Amino acid sequence: MKSLVLKAAAWLSDLRVAIVLLLLIAACSGLGTAIPQGEPAAFYHERYDAAPWLGVVNGDQLLSWELDHLYTSNWFLLLLAWLGLALLLCSLRRQWPALRASLRWLDYTKPRQLSKLAVATSLDTSDSAAAIDALEQQLQQQGWAVRRQQNRLAARRGVIGRVGPLLVHTGLIVFMVGAVVGAFGGQRLERFLAPGRSLELLNPQGDTRLELQLDSFAIQRDPAGRPEQFSSQLLLGDGTGAPAQPAAVSVNHPLRHRGITVYQADWGLAAVTLQLGQSPLLQLPLQTFPELGEQVWGLVLPTRPDGSDPVLLALQSELGPAEVYGADSQQLGLLTVGGESQEILGLPLRIADVMPASGLLIKRDPGVPLVYAGFAITLLGGGLSLIATRQLWAISESGRLHIAGLCNRNLVAFADELPKLGSAAITGAPHDAR
What element of type H or E holds 189? Predict the structure, then answer.
């Protein structure tokens, strides 16, 4: 039984298994990007039943395979847990023993023991005691940790590099834990707000966590009229009666406040202010018309007191113009925003103003600190892993200086360096062994 457990642990901690798991997780994450996540079941039936995804997966299959909430699906979490277990076992079975071995001083007492190491050389010297003393001094000057015996020494350098792989594995595990915490504990809300409107966010106890009011919204456009930047001026309150604090958010410049992140995600048109004949100004809400285009807003407006002869006002930006269509889909005219009134089906119609709306994406992700910490630990571990760990032993005996060493990075350069280090110790010439 014990042998089966050991074999299973060895297989789980195999590097090839970890690489396959990483590739699987990356591929599955790509699926999560290609397939919309978190939509109602009707959305997937409407979109994929008539035109299956990749020509194979219809709505029922997509839902049964949990591809609509891939990052919290049972099989995706199983892959993450498997990878975390593989990294943990690899750290316990390989990286931790390697670190402990590098911290333990080994004492070789015979030259024949040194000859069996990866890099070894022997040099003639007229004064072996002086040579070992000079080698010790030289190594200490170059930052080596040296442990000296009567006619021999042991030295090491770059032991901190052995910590790197452990930190990389730890960082990846912390990152995956943060991703799972964020997937289950995070919240996401997308809303369009018109200037003067507010949105209240509650905590699980029903108390106000954040009150967000849109003070103003602006769209910056290029000379061709295409939107380049959206920015919102906000007022933030905490429900305690304290004065609201001003804040700003724009594309690529989110707002972070009390664990909540507010992104400037989109824009829209909220309302149009118009005048019918000699009537006072009327502010009417706009709605989207996807059948006319991706960014088309409008409203159906009757032109007679009895509600007959309706026309459609369609807008693509807050700058206008507004296109007016009749019941037969024929264009009846163009109305300039802020311009003079025009007669549409015998009714003077003027558009005074169009109010844009700010599309805000509000997210709370409790796993973000863990994700950032995991990235930081992984980067630190990756940097430390680049540091070469070198170990060196020297024995002076019978007019000869025997030197041998081990290195986990660039062994060829270390093999070239070792004879030069010994020669410098014998001749007394300074040598920079890097």
Answer: strand 187-193
Residues in Cβ contact with 77 at an 8 Å cutoff, skipping those fewer than 6 apart: 180
Evaluate the omega torsion of the peptide bond into residue 243 and state whether it is cis, within 30 degrees of 0. no
Helix ranges, 2-127 (H): 2-12, 15-34, 41-48, 59-64, 74-90, 96-103, 111-114
- Domain spans, the chain: 2-95, 105-158+388-427, 159-183+371-386, 187-268+360-370, 270-355
> What is the spatial distance between Cα 187 and Cα 368, in angstroms, rounded to a whole number?
12
Token pair 């824009």 is at which residue? 267
Tokens of residue 220, six digits:
């910056």
Give the residue, 32 or 375, on which the prediction is more confident.
Answer: 375
Whole-angstrom distance, CA of residue 357 vs CA of residue 252: 18
Tokens of 332: 């009846």
End-to-end Cα, the chain, rounded Å? 49
Q: Which is it for the CA torsion 20, 23, 24, 25, positive or negative?
A: positive
The DSSP call for residue 341 is: -
**Rg (Cα) of the chain, in Å, rounded?**
36
**Contact indicator for 335, 322 with CB cutoff of 8 Å:** yes
Buried/exposed code over 211-250 (b: 16+ C-beta within 10 A; e: otherwise): bbbbeebeeeeeeeeeeeebbbbbebbeeeeeeeeebebb
Dihedral sign (CA 257, 260, 266, 269): negative
If residue 153 lies in a helix (H) or strand (E), which one and from where to where? strand 152-157
pTM (two decimals): 0.64
- In words, the CATH class of domain 105-158+388-427 is alpha beta
Assigned token pair, 348: 């003077």
Burial profile 255-276: b = 16 or more Cβ within 10 angstroms, e = fewer? beeeebebbbbebbbbbbbbeb
* pLDDT band of 200, cuts 50, 70, 90: confident
CA dihedral 124, 129, 132, 135 (to 10 degrees): -90
Cα 283 to its chain centre, rounded Å, is: 43
Predicted local confidence at residue 132, as pLDDT: 86
In the block, residue with structure tokens 């000859």: 115
Spatial separation of the C-alpha atoms in residues 217 and 268, rounded to whole Å: 11
